[in-house]
Amino acid sequence: MTPGRTAAVDDALGRLAKTEPDIRAWVRVDAEGARAAAERAPDGPLRGVPFGVKDIIDVAGLPTECGSPLRRGRTAEHDAWLVDRLRKAGAVPLGKTVTTEFAYFQPGPTRNPHDVAHTPGGSSSGSAAAVAAGVVPLALGSQTAGSLTRPASFCGVAGYVAPVGAWPTTGITGLSPTLDAPGLLTEHVNGLAAAVEAVDGTRCEAPDATVRVLVWPGTELADVHPAMLDALQSTARDLAAAGAATDELAGRVRTPELAEAHATVMAYEAARSLAAEAEHPESLSRHLNDLLARGRDIPADEYQAALAVRHEARTRILELLDRADVILGPAAPGPAPHGLDATGTPVLSRPWQLLGLPVVTVPGHRDPYGMPLGLQLIGHPARVGRLLGIARRVEETVR
Question: Domain extents for the chain?
Answer without folding.
Answer: 1-250+328-399
